[in-house]
Write a structure and sequence with these properties.
binds zinc ion; alpha/beta; six-stranded mixed sheet; globular
């Protein structure tokens, strides 16, 4: 079984399409939340992921606010401006679909579980070893995938906690004997914040118990032009170019 892992699409249709084209064949998509917010194509992104032949979804914090489940109190100015635009742009039917997305964590199979922020709280950011240790303590599967920070990161717990080395280029192998467990953020599709503007995604191959991360260029100029044309803050277009 091959899983495509995508998170934090943030209404960036160009980035999503580039990932879907680059990912090759896969059996099932794991969609880790924040489909909307910041970008200019919330309706089209929702339609695209709903049309995936097989997928498991969880919601992100922007999905909750976009769906009307929560107010914008926890958002900064930019996020609030963008999600208010998103709420007004989404059709009622798509808002209802967003509102029905399940809360993470969700166990996918014996190997994988997914969450948006952390397995103990969907809204918590995992930024460092301490956050990761808390998360790994409650993770129920050898490979826990998360999103929310928009930054590629990996943590491994064996006898002692450590960050996984350069996970961008080296596939992570999950030992079948259960001697190591992993917590990995495959990065953001639609708004990377790790200095690399390319869209990020992951592929899990359950037959070899391997997770590989990948980046792909997309039509950045088109996504930026739509943000500006929509009247969203221009900084949301500019940040896409620098991956911050
Ligand atoms: Zn996000």
């Amino acid at each position: 079984m091959r899983y495509l892992v995508i998170s934090d699409v943030h209404a960036n249709l160009e980035a999503l399409d580039a990932v879907l084209a680059a990912a090759g064949s896969y059996d099932h998509a794991l969609v880790l939340g924040d489909l909307v917010g910041y970008g200019a194509d919330p309706n089209a992104v929702i339609d695209r992921v709903r049309a995936l032949p097989a997928a498991t979804f969880i919601r992100g914090n922007h999905d909750k606010v976009g769906a009307g489940l929560e107010n914008t109190d926890g958002f900064n100015y930019l996020a609030r401006h963008a999600i208010t635009w998103t709420i007004n742009t989404l059709t009622a039917e798509r808002r209802q679909w967003l509102a029905a997305l399940p809360q993470g964590p969700v166990v996918v199979d014996d190997l994988v579980e997914i969450c948006h922020g952390a397995p103990f709280d969907e809204d918590v950011y995992i930024f460092d070893d301490l956050d990761a240790m808390r998360a790994l303590r409650v993770a129920r599967r050898p490979l826990c995938l998360f999103g929310h920070t928009h930054v590629v990161a990996g943590y491994q717990v064996t006898k002692e906690m450590r960050s996984v080395g350069d996970i961008q280029d080296t596939p992570i192998h999950i030992p079948p004997d259960g001697t190591a467990r992993f917590l990995v953020n495959c990065g953001a599709v639609g708004q990377p914040r790790d200095g690399d503007p390319r869209a990020a995604y992951g592929i899990v191959d359950t037959s070899t118990q391997t997770l590989s991360l990948a980046r792909v260029e997309y039509d950045l100029a088109a996504a930026q032009a739509k943000i500006v044309a929509a009247g969203l803050p221009e900084v949301l277009a500019q940040r896409l170019a620098v991956g911050r």
